[in-house]
Amino acid sequence: MRNVLIIGAGRSASSLIRYLLVKSEEENLHITVADLSLELAGQKIGNHPNAEALALDIFNDEERKAAVSKASIVISMLPAHLHIEIAKDCLQFKKHLVTASYISDAMQDLDEEAKQKNLIFMNEIGLDPGIDHMSAMKVIDEIREKGGKMLLFESFCGGLVAPESDNNLWNYKFTWAPRNVVLAGQGGAAKFIQEGTYKYIPYSALFRRTEFLEVEGYGKFEAYSNRDSLKYRSVYGLDAILTLYRGTIRRVGFSRAWNMFVQLGMTDDSYIMEDSENMSYRQFTNSFLPYHPTDSVEIKTRLILKIDQDDIMWDKLLELDLFNPNKKVNLPNATPAQILQKILSDSWSLEPNDKDMIVMYHKFGYEINGNKAQIDSKMVCIGDDQTYTAMAKTVGLPVAIATLLILNGKITAPGVQLPTKKEVYEPILKELEEYGVIFNEQAVPYFGYNPDLF
């Protein structure tokens, strides 16, 4: 049997493991799910005859190398910074590797050796990055094949709560890593290009510069800019494009409300707050407000944020219990961002019966035969339950499908790569449709800057 080693049995691995278990008989697969928690690995495989759970400490070189050496192909579902040792083992034992993570500099440095050994190190094959690359390249390649010239590419993605589980004023719950949500947009200005001009949005203004999107059947959304929209300009072959913008999708009103935390300083992760463990939620909020001998914390918050009495922003803050003097932070040596994450988790954690939702939206503006045209491509995926979430499905299924394509010799180009080649994206996108990951492409009027009209 062909041995597939999956390292990491966390939330993102559930749909991936189920897919390979279902395919194991016809594809002659033996699946080893390795995790630090043997119990978790065992839960993911159940009693399937073609699978085994393995307790694995990836920092134990002997254990890790032994597991990799027995595999036909390795899937790493670990955090991105932990892939590199797995990758080096794969080089040593001549094993293909698949991850859903961004290609790090350390991973890219292995490209030449991977090519020499005819090994495929497929990365960025999850959701974002992953499905975004594949669905974008499909349309871009089709436009080029028709003789079109790309003028505009905008790409948006968001992990949200499904409409049937959307029951708070923020229209949001944590469906993925909460820390990434709290720290979103930090680390430098957002950078993109618009009509040939480079644009920059500082963190202090990021959540007040949003774009609106309409998705049929799901209503209106907004998007704020990702930190570096230009990262994939060359990868996509869009070096000459006039507009290139990537953003994160939220429900309308979220960004304006989130900006309150930014302006107060609650998203700062650069310093530790004294005596944070014994701090109440009310004291945390008051820490960012000026002293006043008579005004309450509530009044000071309204004044500094300029919130009117009837403004929905006030109700959103109240819903989070930010002014509760009895709730304790209970986090020693915590940063403001860590405390905010704790407070938000009280209100934004998914309930057992909640479902999540992934929304992806691409805009392709192009010129063909002297005429300007545009295609909008939209995808909405709803999760099944708390195990087989939309996030787990859209991250894990492309990884699983790519793994089989590599094993079966359908993907052949060696080296460290992401899924922008037709031999990769075409069969994966086609199979994803069977699992409800479907892009609806629609021709719309080109919307670009025209000095004669504006």
Describe the 3D structure.
The protein is of the alpha/beta class and 454 residues long. Helices cover 33% and strands 24% of the residues. It has 15 helices and 16 strands. The strands form three sheets. Strands 3-2-1-4-5-6-15 form a seven-stranded parallel sheet, sandwiched between helices. A seven-stranded mixed sheet has the order 10-11-12-7-13-14-16, with helices on one face. Helix 7 crosses helix 15 and helix 14 (390-407) crosses helix 15. The longest helix is centred in the C-terminal third of the chain and has 18 residues, at 390-407. The protein is globular, with a radius of gyration of 24 Å. It starts with a strand and ends in a 10-residue tail after the last strand. The relative contact order is 0.16.
Structural class: alpha/beta
Which ranges are low-confidence, i.e. pLDDT below 50, for 5 or more consecutive residues?
Answer: none
> Over all CA atoms, what is the radius of gyration?
24 Å
List how many beta strands DSSP finds: 16
Protein name: Saccharopine dehydrogenase family protein
Keywords: Oxidoreductase
Domain Saccharopine dehydrogenase-like C-terminal: 126-437
Domain Saccharopine dehydrogenase NADP binding: 4-121
Task: Please supply descriptive tags for the structure shown above.
seven-stranded parallel sheet; 15 helices; alpha/beta; 454 residues; 33% helix; Sacchrp_dh_NADP-bd
